[in-house]
Amino acid sequence: MITITLENERNQVIEKIGEHDNREYLLKYTDNPAYNILSEISNYDHEIVLSEDTPELIAELESIKTDLMAKQISHVDEIIRLARIAQKHKGYALIITPFD
Questions:
Q1: What pLDDT digit, counting tens, does each position of 35-84 carry?
Q2: Taking phi first (over 0 means left), then psi (-120 to 50 degrees means alpha), and beta for anything else, what does residue 91 get?
Q3: DSSP states along 41-54
Q4: How confident is residue 99, by pLDDT bands cut at 50, 70 and 90?
Q5: Which CATH architecture has domain 3-97?
Q6: Could you give the dihedral angle defined by the CA atoms of residues 97, 63, 49 and 12, in that order, rounded to the nearest 10 degrees?
Q7: Are 71 and 65 a contacting pair, CB within 8 Å?
Q8: Is the Cβ–Cβ distance between 89 and 8 less than 8 Å?
Q9: What is the pTM of this model?
Q10: Is-contact 73 64, C-beta < 8 A?
Q11: What is the pLDDT confidence band of residue 6, given thresholds at 50, 70 and 90?
Q12: Domain assignments of the chain as residue spans, ordered by start
């Protein structure tokens, strides 16, 4: 499972989400240059998305929703919701990790 954590500027966890089978669709874009942020998600390392980079992440997530099923879209919408919170708060970040 890939875990997405919203943290504030003091590295305090605001919210953490994950979905049992989300590796299937979140890792699908690894090494795909068309997806600058999603291409960096991996099974062995974490990716930090700073508040100023969240608009790009949101755009990438919106674009993959057409290939997903309803439950997967719901999870991607939750990630987008966290990204929008981070976008509003300078210093917030999303941590995307295969570790819990």
A1: 999 999 999 999 999 999 999 999 999 999 999 999 999 999 999 999 99
A2: left
A3: --SSS-EEEEGGGH
A4: confident
A5: 3-Layer(aba) Sandwich (3.40)
A6: -70
A7: no
A8: yes
A9: 0.94
A10: no
A11: very high
A12: 3-97
